[in-house]
């Protein structure tokens, strides 16, 4: 019971922000909250947010773990493009759906393995190590699609992008299920704690017998797997692999989702649920701005302004400040902390 | 005693408290005009804390600073610099991509028509450096100069800015013998100009070569200030490492316990550049102490035994069976444990709770797929919090909020939870309150009674003597002598280190 309470406390800021964003949009567009059942499928703007946010949500799951290890993965957007291209190429050359999916996911994990080896074995800074694949990945994807948009019309593959299950669009089902599965994996085993220990103090963790190298590589492989799933969804959604634009800049949205989720870029304590909420906050803002009919050139600026606001509210300094206004006693503690 | 007007800098009753530990306790320090004054002590003795209190890098919590007859209270290093206290660190604190002249005059370049007058600046830089017998191209980038020259440039800048007190913090650590001589010539010249120089180093020969007086700190306390000429090397080492000579107590009682079978045998174990090959045997229920000065290879010995550094020569045996210890993980599989010297960087996982820190090593050994059930974790944590008297409000508190002594006990608990049979403790009592020293020592003794084999590295010789049946003395990254049973006394250890040290000086 206690654990549940502390969990909700951890997620409270993200839940509050998400509700606030949704309420704000629905004030301007009352239709935003409307849900309809049609042909056994739920329609509405809220479902649209969940659906459109699927790629970023999936990327955010892997990114959360990588950031918890004190790393970062800039290559996920490019890996999406590679895996989308691999899936399209495989299905158009007549392979079965199962084979195609397995191949695409395996390629994503291979990309993660590459990143992980650069970071864990060669000790290259994560931002540089993953930049390599971020730049090269799009080129690889273009080689696979031979520069064109590789279209397909295999109904099974398309179903992943636009089908539905239990009334929900497939992408929503996939990211929800994957998020729950990974959360259970890290929290029901010791992985979560070991990853946090590694992110906070790698040397001390190694000296305590934690296989920090293996864990690091596994984190990047997971990130690659997430990118692969996101890439397949993105390709299935448009029934084609677009090597130039699939997943473009999404690595930044994923990092943003993790940060809006209140996870520290310095590694350590993490919450996948909070990152997923962060991804939904970002998507809700995106959808809201689109609905508002502002000229599109304003969209990015408005989005940036809202995100700055969220980050300011979350900043430890602001928190200290509000605590100081609350009771001046806590200020001393904060100052002492700083002096350390 | 000389007249009071000789004193250029006087610090009295300096106190500095860090969360959980008293870093400086009523320390007095007086620097005369025209003297070179060595500030000595082991790691964590409080040397750098004292210097930082003097230069304003830390705010002191108590005590008085008098510079040239006036009370001062520098808020930061810039203010101290303006007042006349300049500091040069081991890592040169200048900008390598600027020229020598720019570095000398950074922030106060001569100007003409609002622009930097480069010609004037270079002329002045040349004049300034000629005072240090240094004839170099002042327009060259600083990074193109040798470390020694950079060091001199840093000194020239500090003296030019400050001019009353110069603090040299390990300035010779990366210099060769010839460069050290050049540096000393400069220090002697500054001394003759009436500057007071504080010299921090761990090379004792250099102390005797240049210093007039010596102040020794230990555990944040002043041990004493002596004239260098009247302080034999042996006595100096005793001041740094242990109690005053003649006060030593040898506790009997641990000699008989150590007659068990040899469980751990290392032969020709070593690693190039870290520690010369050594032989070491440890019996069941035995405490082997390791003594030596800073940089003598103490920590390197511990790391190589635990696999944190791989040995490149020699063999290891556990219970007569040959084993290969290539990583901490394999060491842990053979039931080794290691409490490192630097708790902050090598020991604690700061943001994790006391509970998580305690179960970490056990969890790592079980593997990720077999999590320790939460109830079991709670039980383990509570058991060790009680057994070792770890003072924390509850087991979920982040460990970084605990005091040094309690962090140390939590890390000990991390290893005890794995039921180790061979425990290596590197400076287990460093940087923790004196009260906690006794608790840790009691713990070491009781572990030994339970049949555990321990290696304890300590610069607290009287503590080492209290619990060790054998003490191995290290010098120059090699094991140089071993004291057994009755021979284990602080004076014997000091002698062994000093003899070794003299031998080195004679080479």
Automatic annotation (TrEMBL), chain A:
InterPro entries: ABC_transp_permease
Coiled-coil segments: none
Keywords: Cell membrane, Membrane, Transmembrane, Transmembrane helix
Transmembrane segments: 7-29, 49-67, 74-91, 97-120, 127-145, 157-186, 207-236, 248-266, 273-294, 300-318
Pfam families: BPD_transp_2
Keyword Transmembrane carried by entry: yes
Subcellular location, principal: membrane
Subcellular localization(s) per the UniProt record: Cell membrane
Membrane topology: Multi-pass membrane protein
Protein name: ABC transporter permease
Organism of provenance: Mycoplana rhizolycopersici
TrEMBL record, chain B:
CDD domains (alphabetical): ABC_Carb_Monos_I, ABC_Carb_Monos_II
Highest taxon in the source lineage: Bacteria
PROSITE patterns (UniProt xref): ABC_TRANSPORTER_1, ABC_TRANSPORTER_2
Pfam families: ABC_tran
Protein biosynthesis is among the record's keywords: no
Domain (ABC transporter): residue spans on this chain: 9-244, 256-501
GO molecular function: ATP binding
Keywords: ATP-binding, Membrane, Nucleotide-binding, Repeat, Sugar transport, Transport
InterPro entries: AAA+_ATPase, ABC_carbohydrate_import_ATPase, ABC_transporter-like_ATP-bd, ABC_transporter-like_CS, P-loop_NTPase, YtfR-like
NCBIfam families assigned: YtfR_transport (NF041861)
Similarity annotation: Belongs to the ABC transporter superfamily.
Protein name: Sugar ABC transporter ATP-binding protein
């Amino acid at each position: 019971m206690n654990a549940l309470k502390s969990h909700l406390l951890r997620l409270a800021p993200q839940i509050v922000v998400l509700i606030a964003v949704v309420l704000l949009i629905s004030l301007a567009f009352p239709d935003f909250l409307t849900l309809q059942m049609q042909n056994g499928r739920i329609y509405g703007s809220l479902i649209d947010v969940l659906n459109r946010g699927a790629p970023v949500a999936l990327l955010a799951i892997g990114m959360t773990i990588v950031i918890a290890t004190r790393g970062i993965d800039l290559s996920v957007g490019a890996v999406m493009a590679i895996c989308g291209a691999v899936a399209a190429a495989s299905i158009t050359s007549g392979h079965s759906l199962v084979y195609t999916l397995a191949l695409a996911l395996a390629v994503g994990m291979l990309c993660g393995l590459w990143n992980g080896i650069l970071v864990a074995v060669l000790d290259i800074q994560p931002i540089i190590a993953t930049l390599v694949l971020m730049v090269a990945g799009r080129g690889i994807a273009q080689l696979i699609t031979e520069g064109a948009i590789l279209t397909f019309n295999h109904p099974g593959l398309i179903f992943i992008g636009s089908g539905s299950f239990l009334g929900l669009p497939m992408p929503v089902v996939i990211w929800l299920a994957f998020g729950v599965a990974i959360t259970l994996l890290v929290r029901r085993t010791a992985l979560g704690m070991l990853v946090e220990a590694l992110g906070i103090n790698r040397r001390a963790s190694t000296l305590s017998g934690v296989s920090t190298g293996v864990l690091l590589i596994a984190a990047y492989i997971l990130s690659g797997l997430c990118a692969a799933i996101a890439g397949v969804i993105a390709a299935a959604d448009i029934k084609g692999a677009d090597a130039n634009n699939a997943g473009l800049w999404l690595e930044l949205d994923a990092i943003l989702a993790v940060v809006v989720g209140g996870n520290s870029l310095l590694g350590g304590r993490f919450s996948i649920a909070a990152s997923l909420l962060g991804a939904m906050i970002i998507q809700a803002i995106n959808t809201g701005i689109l609905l508002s009919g502002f000229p599109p050139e304003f969209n990015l600026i408005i989005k940036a302004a809202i995100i700055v606001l969220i980050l300011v509210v979350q900043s430890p300094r602001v928190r200290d400040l509000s605590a100081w206004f609350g009771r001046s006693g806590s200020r001393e503690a904060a100052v002492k902390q700083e002096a350390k | 005693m000389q007249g009071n007007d000789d004193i250029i800098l006087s610090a009295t009753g300096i106190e500095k408290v860090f969360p959980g530990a008293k870093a400086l306790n009523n320390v007095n320090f007086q620097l005369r005009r025209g003297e070179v004054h060595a500030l000595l002590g082991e790691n964590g003795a409080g040397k750098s804390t004292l210097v930082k209190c003097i230069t304003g890098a830390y705010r002191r919590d108590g005590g008085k600073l008098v510079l040239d007859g006036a009370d001062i209270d520098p808020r930061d290093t810039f203010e101290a610099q303006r007042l006349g206290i300049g500091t040069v660190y081991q890592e040169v604190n200048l900008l390598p991509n600027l020229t020598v002249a720019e570095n000398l005059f950074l922030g106060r370049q001569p100007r003409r028509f609002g622009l930097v007058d480069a010609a004037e600046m270079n002329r002045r830089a040349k004049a300034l450096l000629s005072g240090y017998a240094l004839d170099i191209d002042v327009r060259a980038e600083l990074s193109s100069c040798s470390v020694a020259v950079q060091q001199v440039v840093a000194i020239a800048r500090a003296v030019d800015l400050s001019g009353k007190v110069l603090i040299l913090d390990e300035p010779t650590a990366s210099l060769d013998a010839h460069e050290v001589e050049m540096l000393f010539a400069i220090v002697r010249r500054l001394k003759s100009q009436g500057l007071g120089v504080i010299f921090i180093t761990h090379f004792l020969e250099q102390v005797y070569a240049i210093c007039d007086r010596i102040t020794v700190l230990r555990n944040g306390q002043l041990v004493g200030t002596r004239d260098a000429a009247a302080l034999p090397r042996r006595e100096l080492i005793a001041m740094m490492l242990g109690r005053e000579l003649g006060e030593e107590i040898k506790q009997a009682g641990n000699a008989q316990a150590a007659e068990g079978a040899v469980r751990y045998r290392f032969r020709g174990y070593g690693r190039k550049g870290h520690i010369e090959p050594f032989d070491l045997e440890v019996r069941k229920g035995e405490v082997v102490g390791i003594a030596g000065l800073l940089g003598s290879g103490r920590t390197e010995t511990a790391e190589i035994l635990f696999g944190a550094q791989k040995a490149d020569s020699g063999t290891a045996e556990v219970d007569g069976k040959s084993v290969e210890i290539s990583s901490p993980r394999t060491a842990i599989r053979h039931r080794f444990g290691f409490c490192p010297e630097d708790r902050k960087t090598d020991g604690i996982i700061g943001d994790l709770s006391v509970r998580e820190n305690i179960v970490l090593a056990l969890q790592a050994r079980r593997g990720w797929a077999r999590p320790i059930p939460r109830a079991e974790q709670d039980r383990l944590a509570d058991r060790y919090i009680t057994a070792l008297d770890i003072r924390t409000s509850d087991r979920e508190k982040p460990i970084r909020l605990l005091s040094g002594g309690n962090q140390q006990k939590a890390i000990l608990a991390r290893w005890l939870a794995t039921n180790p049979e061979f425990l290596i403790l590197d400076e287990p009592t460093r940087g923790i309150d004196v009260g906690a020293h006794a608790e840790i020592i009691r713990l070491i003794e009781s572990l030994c009674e339970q049949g555990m084999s321990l290696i304890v590295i300590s610069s607290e010789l009287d503590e080492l003597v209290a619990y060790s049946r054998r003490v191995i003395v290290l010098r120059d990254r090699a094991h140089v002598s071993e004291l057994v049973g009755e021979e284990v006394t602080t004076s014997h250890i000091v002698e062994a280190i000093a003899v070794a040290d003299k031998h080195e000086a004679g080479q």
